[in-house]
Design brief:
Layout: E1 8-10, E2 17-18, E3 22-24, E4 26-27, H1 31-34, E5 37-43, E6 46-60, E7 66-69, E8 89-91, E9 96-112, E10 117-133
Parallel strand pairs: 2-10
Antiparallel strand pairs: 1-4, 3-8, 5-6, 6-7, 6-9, 9-10
C-alpha cells in the first residue's frame, strides 16, 4: 500500500501572495495522497486487509500558526474574491519567506482472518517556502 505525502496545490512555492489577503490552502486529491486506499496480503490461512485514509491535514504556516483541515481543502476560484476559505485557509500578517509544512495524518484500519484487527497511525509530510509581499498603494493627489 502506497501512502504518499500531500501534493500541495496552493499555496504554491512559485506563487505571489499578499499580506492581509486570505490564502486558500488545498492539496490534490487522489487515493495514494488522501485515500481511501486498500491492500490485502495472505500467509498460509491468514489474510490481512488494510484500508487507509487521511484523517486530517495539519499545516504549519511558518509564522507560528497551525491550521488543521479535515479534508483536502477547497480549490480557490477568482469568483471567490477576498473571502476566507470555507474549510482550510490562513491570513498572514507579515511579509517575508515562510517555511510551510503540511502533514497528512493517515488512519490505517486493518482486519485479519479470524476477527483480529486494529488501527495504525502514519504521517507523510511535504515542505515548501511561501513568499508574502506587501501591496503598496500610491496616492497621486
Amino acid at each position: 500500500m502506497t501512502l504518499r505525502p500531500p501534493k500541495v496545490a496552493s499555496p504554491r512555492s512559485e506563487g505571489t501572495y499578499v499580506v492581509g489577503m486570505p490564502m486558500w490552502m488545498w492539496v490534490e486529491r487522489g487515493t495514494s495522497r488522501m485515500g481511501p486506499v486498500s491492500a490485502s496480503a495472505s500467509a498460509g490461512s491468514v489474510t490481512v486487509t488494510a484500508t487507509a485514509r487521511v484523517d486530517r491535514l495539519v499545516w504549519t504556516t511558518g509564522d507560528g500558526t497551525t491550521v488543521t483541515c479535515h479534508g483536502p481543502g477547497t480549490r480557490y476560484t477568482p469568483d471567490q474574491g477576498k473571502v476566507m476559505s470555507p474549510d482550510c485557509g490562513h491570513r498572514y500578517d507579515r511579509p517575508g519567506e515562510h517555511q510551510v509544512t503540511v502533514t497528512a495524518h493517515w488512519d490505517v484500519k486493518w482486519e485479519a482472518t479470524g476477527g483480529d484487527g486494529g488501527t495504525l497511525a502514519r504521517t507523510r509530510t511535504t515542505e515548501m517556502v511561501t513568499g508574502l509581499r506587501e501591496a503598496q498603494v500610491l496616492n497621486t493627489r
